[in-house]
Amino acid sequence: MPSETPFRDVEKLLKQAGYQLARVNGSHHIFTKPGRQPVSIPVHRGKVKPFYVCQIEKLRDE
Fold first, then answer.
1. Contacts (Cβ under 8 Å, ≥6 apart) of 13
2. CA 1 – CA 57 distance, rounded (Å)
3. pTM above 0.85?
4. CATH topology of domain 5-61
């Protein structure tokens, strides 16, 4: 299984896809983009689990 990814890299991917950080609720960072559902990314110790990185890559490809 791939290792966890630093949040700063995940944030960069989302921003390239047109998402903006709207708010932080506990460990969940909520990103929004007009016309799309919000994306919630849990961040623990500055890292994001591989499952969420795969989901973000799918969003980028849409």
1. 53, 56, 57, 60
2. 16
3. yes
4. Metal Transport, Frataxin; Chain A (3.30.920)
